[in-house]
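Journal club prep, notes for RB
We'll compare a predicted complex against what the paper describes. Inputs for the fe (ii) ion case:
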Amino acid sequence: MKLISTEKLKPGMIVARPIISDAGILLLNSDVTLNDSLIELIKRRGIPFLYVKDDRIDTDVKPLISPDDTAKAVYVIKKAFDQALQSSLRRSSQMNLEHLLEHLNDIVSGIVEIISRQNDLIVHLIDIKNVDSYTFQHSLQVMTISLMIGKSLDMTKNQLHNLGMGAVLHDIGKVGIPKSILNKEGPLTEEERNIVRQHPKTGFELLQDCSLVWPTARAVVLQHHEKWDGSGYPRGLAGEDIHIYSRIVAPVNVYDALISKRPYQESMLPHQAYYYIKGKAGLLFDPLVVEKFLDIVAPYPIGTWVKLNSGEVGLVTSIEPGKVAYPVVKIFYDNNLKPMKNPTTISLSENSILSIDEVVEEPSE
Ligand SMILES: [Fe+2]
């Protein structure tokens, strides 16, 4: 399996990881063979990358949450957000929102179970999103990584549950922001920025009467844009005055936004976002939370082509717990970018000379 940018897709390639739409529908299933019209569709949808099969590497990483469960979860999150919009318009729909939050509660419990059982938690793969599959998959991804961090901080299942509910609902207040502002290309005006900055408070108020969302989970909705150094909003809280759940969700939210394609920005590569978060430890984000984040999220996910400082080019084939920044790389091209007859495998955590210089596309043969 390897990661390939959409422009480099060719007919005959086989999809290795499914693409799910924001309505919770499988857009493209794994094992589908690409043809010209599918490639055209992928380009039109603005999907930036795709995982395709590669005979040379038999890495098959199972995602933590299966595609079916992801699709189901995305569907319920979308419903809850839709219903929240109705509730914000008419008080009478509050009952329906409660009903959906019950479903969401079950989904969060399921994911807390999966994460509690898992020993070595690593985010191995990129969660591929395009502009119109952003909102709900983002909510799910932020929840999953936040729960992994919560587990590494030895939280109880109960704590994880409230952290998960807060994380998945963190942006629910965005239903109050006009689409024209949310999807605007280019910078926002001062007035538009002020409207966007209302969403933590809007979300907090929306959930005020929902007995299923505990106060600590609601705190995440209200505080997820607060920053460690006090430079965030809405209240400009700093340090440990910000609830620990919110301190976890804050960097995860920024990370996942950076690696996603949005109307107003191209996506960053995972390692660029990873080192951005690292650089903001103790400034924007709680340094202890960032330390855990850096142990869990792989900067060079499996399937990434990398160029080493030796000039050789290879593919990341596995990642070891505790050493996510130093993956195992299988070298396929020598330093003149000629294909190697006998590819070699190098563990960068055990090699003090070799390191990753840059992320590249596969050299054309
Ligand atoms: Fe937000």
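Talking point for the session: The radius of gyration is 21 Å.
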